[in-house]
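Example record for the data management plan.
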Amino acid sequence: MRFKSKMAMEHVQLLHNVILPISRLTGGGGGPDDKSIGSGTTIYLDPEVLRISSRGGAGRTVDGGHQLGGGEQGAEGIACFSELIAVNGIFLEHKIESIADNVIVFDINLVHLRTALAATLQSLGGGGGGERANSAPLHNSGRGDERNASSRRSSSSYHSTSSVIVVMKLAKRGGVPCLCLDTSTANGTLDVHHAVPVKILRAEEWQHYLPPVVNTPDVQLEFQLERPLRPVIERLKAMSPIIYVDGSMAGELVLRVDNDAVSVKTFYDKLIPRVDEESEQPQADPARCTLKVDSKKLLASLQWQSSMARGTVGSYIICLVANEMMVVHVVLEPEDVGFFTYYIPVHFLSPDMMDF
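Corresponding structural encoding:
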C-alpha cells in the first residue's frame, strides 16, 4: 500500500478550508496529548478522487481542551460527505497503489488533521490559523478564463521562487500508520513535518460510510452567496430549539419560529429553483415542502458560511425532502474541484402542521 502526493500552498489552503467546518461538526481531539483516531471521519482515496465521510457527534465533544459550543453541541445525527477531484484538482501530482484496485480507506481524527494543515499554512505564511483563511484559485484547476490564468501564472511564479514543496503521504511513524505532511524548501531554510495517526480499513468497508440515500427532493433552491442563512438561523436558535423551513419551487423560502413565547418569520425570495432532468414536468402550482428541524443541527450545518474564505465556495443549494431530510449541498470554486454536502435529519410533521 502506498500513497504520496505533492501539493501547492493553495491546495493545502483548500483542504484546510473544507475540513475546518466539518471538524467542528464531528469533534474529536481533546488536545495535543489525545491520540484517539476513531472520531467519526473516514477518508477514501483512489487515483481519481479524495472523499471525506463524517458523522456529527461521533467524536469527542471537546475541541482543543474546550467544550464545543454553538451548533456543534446538536450535531448528532448529521452526516457530511465531501468529494475533491485528485487529478488536476486537490493535488499537483499523486501516486496511489494498493491491492484493492488502488483504493485506500482509513479513519482519521479530523481535528488533528486540521491542526496539521493550519500549522503547515502558517509555516508557509498562509492564513490557516484564523477563522477566515486567505484563498487563491487553484492554478491547475483547468479553468480557462483570463482571471484564473493570471492567478495560475502568479501562483506558479511564487512557488518556483520559494521552491516550497508540500508532500502528503501515508507512512509509518514509530510503527503506527500515519497521514504525514512534510513541508520543505530546496535551500533547506524550511523543514516541517506532521504525522496524524490513522486506522487503515479494508476497501470494502467504505460501503458503510457512503452518503445517505434520499428520495428526490420536493423542493430545491439555489442561494446567492450574498444571502447567507447562518446569521438568521443563529438569531432564531436563540428563540426556539425548533425551526420550521417552508420552501416553494416558486423560488421562496420561509424560516419560522412559532411557540407560546414568540412567532417570527423570515422570508427569502427570488431564489433559483433547481429541477432534476428526470423529474422535470410542468405543474399548475409550484411544489411546496415544510420541514421541522432542530435549530442546533441546522446551525451546525451552516458553520462553513462563517469560516470559509471568499472565493472558496461557488454556490449552495438547499434541498427539502418531506418528513425525511434537509440537504445542504455546497459546490466549491472552481466548480470542477469538488463539493461537500450536509444531510440533516428532520422531525415528522403531520399534514395539519404543514401550513405556510
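Summary line stored alongside the record: The chain is about 20% helix and 35% strand.
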